[in-house]
Structure formats: structure tokens, C-alpha cells
Amino acid sequence: MKIDVSKIVKAEGACQAVSVEISVDKIDFNGQEFLFTAPLKVEGTVKNNGGNLYLDAAVQTQFVVNCARCLKEITEDFEFDVNESYTQSEKIGEDSVFLPIVSNTVDLQSAVEENFCTSVPFVFLCNEDCKGLCHTCGKDLNDGPCDCEDEEIDPRLAALKAFLKND
Ligand SMILES: [Zn+2]
Ligand SMILES: [Zn+2]
């Protein structure tokens, strides 16, 4: 998704409204899969300040993600901000925080996807009190206890057991 900024790219102080919807199927990040059930709705402005362009926008979307404990699918409404700076590519050095302005357009897609990844929580739970799955038999403990329960073992041994099992 690229935005035409030809009207403001040479006019210092000029500002342009941004109102677009970006369709993304899914983003894989941090071992989680986010399946989008709504487009990423971007509302904000791009402003020319001293010849550079600054995007300042709010993004709204909805996605399905798995509970970190029981793996149940959860639908989440999510909002985050995107702040990104763009400049003419010849001015971009190695450590630059700027993204390039290419043929009077700026790329919104990568800015939005990157900011999504830095804003989204690491862990989603279906419920704060989610009991998760039994490490031994895999039963969803929210549906009641399983038969492994009487096998009370030392937590350190349990950790070792889980470790060996994952290997
Ligand atoms: Zn859960
Ligand atoms: Zn069990």
C-alpha cells in the first residue's frame, strides 16, 4: 500500500490526510500467528516538516490469535499508533531512522506491519484464569481436571520431564 505524496513532498509545512484500509491475511511474529478478520484501518496525517515527511496515524483492526495456555482461538480488537519518518533516498545513511520516499510515494504497508509487531502484546489469554492444557495428557484443564492429577511430582522434576518431552 503506497500513498501518493506528490502534493506535499515539495511544500514545507503542508499536510495531507491519510485514510486507507490495508488488507493483510496474516502476520507471523514471535511464534504467534495473527489471522486478520478485518482490514487494518489507517487514519492520520502525513506532514512535510523541513522537507521530510512524518506519518502520524492510528490503526484499528481485528484478528484471531491462540490463547498462550490452552491454544483456544480468541478474537481480539486491536488499536495501535504508527509514527514513521520518510525522506528522499539520497539522504538516507546507514543508521537512518528514515524510510525512503520513492517516486513521490511512501510505503505504508511495511510501516504499519512493523509497528503492529512492536505494539502487539507477547501473550494473549482467553481468560486471565485460563488453566491451560495438561502437560502430560494434553487435556484442556478448563473443562475439568484430568486423570494425571494424582501423580504429584516435584516441580523441578516436572520441568525436566517437560524438557525431555520437547526434545
Ligand atoms: Zn486459554
Ligand atoms: Zn493430564
Topology of this protein?
Elements: E1 2-4, E2 15-22, E3 26-29, E4 32-36, E5 40-49, E6 52-66, E7 73-88, E8 99-101, E9 105-107, H1 108-119, H2 155-166
Parallel strand pairs: 7-8
Antiparallel strand pairs: 1-9, 2-5, 3-4, 4-6, 5-6, 6-7
The site of one zinc ion (ZN) has 7 residues, from loops.
Q: Overview of this structure, please?
A:
By secondary structure, this protein is mainly beta. The protein folds into two domains: 2-119, no CATH class; 131-167, no CATH class. Helices cover 14% and strands 40% of the residues. The longest helix is centred in the C-terminal third of the chain and has 12 residues, at 108-119. The structure holds zinc ion (ZN) (2 copies). One zinc ion binds next to loops.
Summarize the structure.
By secondary structure, the chain is mainly beta. It has helices spanning 108-119, 155-166, and strands at residues 2-4, 15-22, 26-29, 32-36, 40-49, 52-66, 73-88, 99-101, 105-107.
